[in-house]
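Note to self: user wants both folds in one dump. Writing first protein now.
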Amino acid sequence: MYSLLLSAVVDHDESTYKCGEITAKRWIMPDNAPFYNKGRGRSIMCSDLLVMHPSGPFFSLTEKEYSEALKTYPNLNDDCDINYEKNSASTAIALGGDNYFDNQSILNQFKRLFQLLPFKKEYKSHNFLYLVENSRTHTAAEIHLNDFRMRPGTRCPVDKIEYIDENNKKKLSNVMMMMDTVKVSKLEKLAAEYNIKIIFTPKYHCETNLIEGYWCHSKQYIRKHTDQSFQKLTTLMPEAKANFIQKQVHLKLFRRFWRTIKAYDQGKDYLEVLRMFFSGLCNDQIISHRKITNTNLDN
């Protein structure tokens, strides 16, 4: 079992913020125009990390720490398609055209994070355990089964496969399809290079992904203060982050997360865990591995 002694648990995820602002050019029928809902507006996609550590819920370096990191990794200041927050690995992009967080973007973000981590003084002598959502953007494998032909002597893109075993150790395999080598994601392989452990959280289980609580708080704050313009959205996003820290919402999320993990460890089922969040409002028709909707709750 992975030791949590002197460890920092880091949770990563992406989310999209939408506004009501739309393009000025659109088709209009005679004497009327369709009403556009908020899902059609301009959007900003964020990729952030929530850190379970006394120094604060978000990761960033001081100017002095970042200068030290640049001496070892000059590439940290290289121009790229994604703009990172100052001295951090948190990032956001305006969606449109080809702008989207794909697997390569996520790998670049994590590589930057892994390079910055050792230079934060509060994290000295800490192990790092990363919780990452189990989505295709994160779990893309370096080698896919479709890259190989079925018959001997036909296409084979590699002679050997390097993979990570159950002990987080690098292994090399000459035998194809005899082991779970092709199941190793690019992200896991990248993390192993920096001696970092990656755990993919179960799908459809938001209770095990504590950063979801940050997205909820942030979007609630924005909806309360927005005028639906894109400019206002860009202004409110950092304000929502500051409000999250000021109100110390992360402490509640951390407590809820560990209560959930402890409950599953004690053998409680999905319904029992949900009742920890929603009290007795959850009925017995809730099915595991399903998202929570209003129909799951009693009136």
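First done. Writing the second protein, which came from a different request thread.
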Amino acid sequence: MRTVDVSVKPETLREAAAEGLIRLKPETVKLIKENRVPKGNVLEACKLAGIMAAKKTAELLPFCHPLPFDHAEVTAELGESYLKVRALVRGVARTGYEMEALTAVSAALLTVYDMCKGFDDEMRIEGVRLTHKRGGKSDWFADLKGVRASVHAEDEKLEKLVKGFLAELGATFSENADLFVSVGENLPMGRELRGFESVVALYDFARDPTAVAKEVRVGRTDEALLLVLPPDEGKITQFFKTFGGLLRHLL
């Protein structure tokens, strides 16, 4: 048994939302609305329980990564025969907050059950589900379909490796290219995209400080995007697996 290794993923802004409800007798709804439940204010207690549970998610679920988050919000809505809970969790991380949002909703609903079980034996929790998530690779990944690429490398093995990744992304190959890739040899950069280069360099340094000399350079002319990769199989593989889906946004 093991958790998923997310160490290769970049940290990005992520968000997840979930909801669920608990069916209640109309009499129970009335007690909650009038704040006459003996154990206290059900609406406020369930919201607090949800936020606390979101913080403890990794302790409850053995394969869930312990994630810090930057925002958690739980809301509660009373209907004629139910109480609905919604949770939103947001932060910058390598993996998503789906489990934190679902755990928040579940704990909030269980708190309602616990506070009302003494006088409502017909309560039923239902509809706990993820309603929204965003962030991570699924949001920003774009293929290279329709993009013409040209690859040059002295090492045939590395040239084949780069072409394999580009083909996997959907690119075709032509000397009249939209994307020129050079392995090991510098190209006249034109306008260098230093922001993107810095992101790649910081990512690389966090994983291998000794590899800072194996830099990736990116620039563009009026006609094409230029990419210079170090003659290192591991570095090339890491670049395409992590940042290959961003190349389309640079064209």
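Dump finished. Worth passing along: DSSP finds nine helices and ten strands in the chain.
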